[in-house]
Amino acid sequence: MSFRYLYGPVPSRRLGRSLGVSPIPPKTCNFSCVYCQLGRTTNMTNQRQEFFNLQDILEEFKAYIKSGVSQFDFVTIVGEGEPLLYSRIGELIKSIKAYVDKPVAVITNGALLCEEKVREELNESDLVMPTLDAYDQITFKKINRPHKSISFDSYVDGLISFSKNFKGKIWMEFMMIKGLNDDEESLRKIKEIFNRISYDRLYINLPMRPPAEDWVTVPEKEKIELAQNILGGISLDFLEEEDFYSSIEDDLEAILSIIKRHPMNQHEIESFLDQRKCENKNEIFEKLEKDENVEKVQYFGLNVYRLTSVRR
Ligand code: SF4
């Protein structure tokens, strides 16, 4: 059985094993971040829509759970773009929580939190993970390249308003990029903004998977330590802790369903295939190499595989 909206569980250093729900079509976002691991945004929009029928997503979710997937710590709503663009996200969260006894997390860029209705829709979730990488309109445009209707001030106001009233946990994320936001002055300005937001944790992320722009790179170690000191955040490193999983029987299709949202390096694919007792690993790699929808990128000395086009 193949699944359209569900994937994983995939390993996450923050969430353990995360079962992904994607209610957003590929690369549909109101940002086009220079570090995005999905590539550049091809459908730039700030218009919320029911991109996929809610009942179809929920039916697939139930079928996925019935197929025996139970080893996961979080259900994570994380589109192939920005999940808050899904206009029925509140109902989606409520229905998932009514069906499984697991916490629901939403990974978002946070831009739509300036809308009261969106903030209310997130009330049923247990954890929201918004991003803040910039400290003013100029750095916002350089790093996140937002939709033209989004201003930095309204974005920050939305994060602050949301953080004041949300009853669940908020884990902020900060993507640190060499030469863009890794110097002391930038970090101190970002810290001033973080001080206005109430959150439970702050993660410092690094662009460890192939980014949308190939000039994006990881800051030096001393800069990362400086960021930890100034921001007081937790820094994530490259290695994932747990294994990938897919309920799709066919090994190749299972890998394709994961790399659609989450690029995998050669070692991750190998251990995924080992775990499934795959006896023709070389053949799978050959098929990946030949598939014109699969891009192989060299990054940090590893071959990383990601899907480049819509393959449903
Ligand atoms: S990183 Fe997230 S917010 Fe940025 S372009 Fe990619 S999907 Fe959109």
Notable characteristics:
312 residues; alpha/beta; TIM Barrel; 2 domains; 8-stranded mixed beta sheet; 3-stranded antiparallel beta sheet; 19% strand; binds iron/sulfur cluster
Structure description:
It is a single chain. The protein is built from ten helices and 13 strands. It has an eight-stranded mixed β-sheet. It has a three-stranded antiparallel β-sheet with strand order 11-13-12. It has two domains: 233 residues, TIM Barrel, CATH 3.20.20.70; 57 residues. Helix 1 packs parallel to helix 2 and helix 6 packs parallel to helix 7. The longest helix is centred in the middle third of the chain and has 14 residues. 33% of the residues lie in helices and 19% in strands. It is an alpha/beta fold and 312 residues long. The structure holds iron/sulfur cluster.
Short description:
With 312 residues, this protein is of the alpha/beta class. It contains ten helices and 13 strands.
CATH class of the largest domain: Alpha Beta
Largest beta sheet, briefly? 8 strands, mixed
The portion of residues forming beta strands comes to 15-25%
CATH superfamily of the largest domain: Aldolase class I
Rg computed from alpha carbons, rounded to a whole number of angstroms:
19 Å
What is the CA-CA span between the terminal residues?
A: 13 Å
Architecture blueprint of SSEs:
Layout: E1 6-12, E2 16-21, E3 28-29, E4 43-44, H1 54-66, E5 74-77, H2 89-99, E6 104-108, H3 116-121, E7 127-130, H4 137-143, H5 152-165, E8 169-175, H6 184-194, E9 201-205, H7 221-231, E10 234-235, H8 251-259, E11 264-265, H9 266-275, H10 281-290, E12 294-299, E13 302-307
Parallel strand pairs: 2-5, 3-4, 5-6, 6-7, 7-8, 8-9, 9-10
Antiparallel strand pairs: 1-2, 11-13, 12-13
Helix pairs in contact: 1-2, 6-7
